[in-house]
Amino acid sequence: MLLRRKKSQIAVSLSLLMGMAFTATVNAEVSLQQAIEIQQSLLTLDTHLDTPANLVQPGFDIMARHSYDHDFNQVDVPRMQDGVLDGGFWAIYSSQGPLTEKGYQQSRDTAILRALAIHTMVSEHPKTFAFATDADQAAAIKAAGKHVVYMSIENAYPLGNDISLLETFYKLGVRMAGPVHFKNNQLGDSSTDPDGPKWGGLSPLGEQFVAEANRLGIVLDGSHAGDATVKDMMRLSKTPIMLSHSGSKAVYDHPRNVDDELLKQLAASGGVIQMNAYSSYLKKLPDNPKRSEAFKGFIAMMHESNGEADAAHYEKMQQLRRKIEHDYPAVSATFEDYMEHFLHTLKVVGPKHVGIGADWDGGGGVEGMMDVSSLPKITQRLLNEGYSKQDLADIWGLNALRVLKAADDYAKQPKLSQ
């Protein structure tokens, strides 16, 4: 009897120890190395890369390792490999000028040159990059060991009053386009125009823009658009829209961010929001008047070059920027601030409607994640928050590709003649 009791106690003790060991295994935090290995098995895309603006700058080589501290670039091939970034949407951006034919033509020419710069990057490095124009191509490009290059338009101001130009950009490879940027334009209202709304959403021409994007199979991008503009886009579009680089207004009430109600409407329509890492949209940052004043000189130098600086002028710009950063260092949001937006948005709409568009080379980057080499920290944090590998697969690429496929499928459907 005593022997049986001791055997029973030993069995219970072993069972408890095994249970404790199992619990410890389940609750063990994922290391950064483990996160990197998991991310390597996923298709990882960022839906807003402003790097094409760097492609035309003197001395920039996408194949060489750069440093944010030295030249303020955030995306290149070595750091993409470090950060396990397979690619994404490379943005064609041209700054907005006056709503005149001359302004439209100048912006159109700049936008076409940006598109050609992206094509040149791919053609010069065919073993490293490959174009993608539909959702199914991305996985095959990754399997071939190359980086994925989709193209997007940030701010459709270059179209002017000729919506048919959107087809020209479609033929160049564009598969996502947003109507506005910092200011209202001929297509609709921005979220940040200092003069407030002009159209109350999309303009009549903006409504034609939505219809043409649908016809072609271009995803509509609501980032930078005012809430009424986003609602008009969702109402009129035959396919889900994307917010390629936005944040949560519930976490920080900024016009560029989206409130929970609009997020729910976006998700209900099948759309996705891609989380932005632009510091001043993540939290209220302290004013720095001396830095702002110093930057006026830098901005003047930028305008002087009109985006096409020669090597000497560009180096002077870089030297001035480094001096400003040394004398009046920026205060940035932190990685935790970024994740607060990310986690809140996931709770509101779930992992089927959230992705990543950090605004690299366009102002994105936070303390602890200043370039693409740090992206596995997002994977690590989400896994440790309890999100699954399938959730990560959706967040890192499949959600955006689902929206792209919906746009393409609609465009290929036979339409009744009007």
From TrEMBL:
UniProt keyword annotations, A-Z: Signal
Keyword Lipoprotein: no
Signal sequence residues: 1-28
CDD domains: rDP_like
InterPro entries: Metal_Hydrolase, Pept_M19
Segments traversing the membrane: none
Name of the protein this chain belongs to: Dipeptidase
